[in-house]
């Protein structure tokens, strides 16, 4: 029973943490509890609270040690999330293999699914390795000429050619210096902690393939478990037994709550794993669709943040301009200044909200 509750907690908490990690810092969640949770867990809030507690308990030595650990985990390349991914992949496969392979073949499941599942997991692992260890498009003195002419400067978020003071090379349009990896990357999208690598021009295809394949892998695992459970219900005549117990003929649709109760009693691991895979697939599908959208409109995650900052700057400039004009108008016409000021301020507020 303890194992079941642990699996319930695992299946419920992990998708939430994944969603907060992947989406909590998006502009659409600004000011919400998701953004605050993301900041607390993944953007330093948790570390700051822990560092304060350690300082109170162990003094300056403990605080310095905590700072060093935080710097390694948050500001330097490290394999922590890679190992976490491998534990999720390996743990999920082991849970399914140890509890469900014995039911293959079944009424609705063929023998070849024993080998198809292993092959699917290996393909996912291969895409993970390709994304993690493929050059994302590092810019240095050797590759600079190839990248400098790839994309034009747009005069807005990439106004003019600039030199990277860290790498000592000219920074091509759409590139960015990654402070974690300490290198410039062509068509920089984001730094992915799960891959311990930047996502850029050369490995974006592998990253997208990784996301799409893992969505398919989760769906495949959920459908396979569903087919196994349905075969067990039919093979053990569960519906007939329930109908006999209640003294009237019934269909699966009529007695599905009792069937679900029976499955949770005897096949709880399979049911919870199926729910877990479906939840994770939804999160990964949303993340994959977002990146597919970015590819279709020919932009990157980094550029969406740049455009958001640029639009905020434009709104601030327009707001200040309107306020200056309203003050000037109020000074020229004192009798109507208060009215002009109220109208201009209202327009400015609406402009800032847009």
From TrEMBL:
Enzyme Commission number(s) of this protein: 2.3.1.225
Keyword terms of this UniProt record: Acyltransferase, Membrane, Transferase, Transmembrane, Transmembrane helix
Chain ranges passing through the membrane: 6-24, 83-103, 115-133, 206-230, 271-296
UniProt xrefs under InterPro entries: Palmitoyltrfase_DHHC (IPR001594), PFA4/ZDH16/20/ERF2-like (IPR039859)
GO terms of molecular function: protein-cysteine S-palmitoyltransferase activity
Domain Palmitoyltransferase DHHC: 159-307
UniProt subcellular location: Membrane
Listed PANTHER family: PROTEIN S-ACYLTRANSFERASE 17-RELATED, ZINC FINGER DHHC DOMAIN CONTAINING PROTEIN
Protein name: S-acyltransferase
Species of the source: Marchantia polymorpha subsp. ruderalis
